[in-house]
Amino acid sequence: MSRSPSAPVVPAPLLTLDEPSGVATSRALIPFEAAILANSDAEAVAAWLQEYRGSPQTQRSYRREAERLLLWLDVQGMRLCELRRPHLDEFEAFLADPQPRELWIGPVKPRHHPGWRPFRGPLAPASRRQSLVILQGMVSWLLEAGWLTHNPFRLMRDKRRRLDNRRSARVERYLERPLWEWLWNWLNRPLDEQASARSRTLWQRRRLVFGFAYLLAPRISEMCEARLSDLMLREGRWWWRVVGKGSKLAEIPVPPDMMQLIQEACGHYGPGESPGYSDGPVLRRLDGKTPLGANQLYRLIRQALGEAADVMEQQGGDPLSVARLRQATPHWLRHTALTHQAQAGVELRYLAESARHSRLDTTARYLHTEDEEWHRQQSRHRLAGSNESEAE
Fold this sequence. Notes:
Low-confidence stretches: 1-7, 19-28, 164-168
Number of helices: 16
Mean pLDDT: 82
Structural class: mainly alpha
Helix content: 40-55%
Largest sheet: 3 strands, antiparallel
Number of strands: 3
Shape: globular
């Protein structure tokens, strides 16, 4: 099953989110004591993924990481049962630099499109750690299920540093307020009087997308699934009813700025479109009726961030800010929203409700106030002869 370096095979999707086959056709591939029915590693992993069917977003995220490992093993000519401790270092190095790049990395495409690739780019250290955390859990489950006989992740000596996700670092993937304000002003730049109807629709939709992401801190899937009928008026205030991660129902306060953006969008969508009454999607394609898909929304946001970076660079802007815009992903907007709410003084309990976090320590990652005060006080520690006023 080994691959020839001169004839590399383009990776193709392995895992669906459907139920496994259910009845195994060949006992030769099934460990004698296995508590699951599967004919292959892919089917065994699919059985594990079914345990997360109540959390579609988590299930898709876990599938992505498991699929990358199975595809890498396939290229090595190996099965999961052959995974050993040294292979984990090789796999982590691969996550940091998937090669050959043209075979592993590409833009977002539907899963069965010929241009689909497992990676959007090399994984940063935090993403690699998260991948190993997920895969450790998967292998532990398959060990318990009798599909595997050992878990090489447990042999990692620096396991506490690499695989212990209980102590999370501060969230750093967000746009600081001056950069966000520049971006929002750029999104609101006036259109030319001769702009076409299509250009005006695109301009309005971009503002709605970024305003939605910033004001309500949704996940991409939640934005795509949001409908006008999910908005409720109660005691003169608007609320957004959303079913989020883990199928948890929440009601989030909708600020006036968001309602203004929605009202403007309804004006574009046509007569009869109104928040709280009509059932159409909040975010729509250019036909004004069809909802935006998650992949299209992801590409729309990345394209806007890329264009903004180009403009800032042409204007001679700060190179670090330009790089930050190029690096940003749609999920950064959620981090930006929650971080800015925390900086504005929103209490932790309300911030956790807006984020739909089940644990306050998860939400606490967005609090940077103590870091700022610590840095301010530490700056008083100076070298002899320094100007102390500079520390203030």
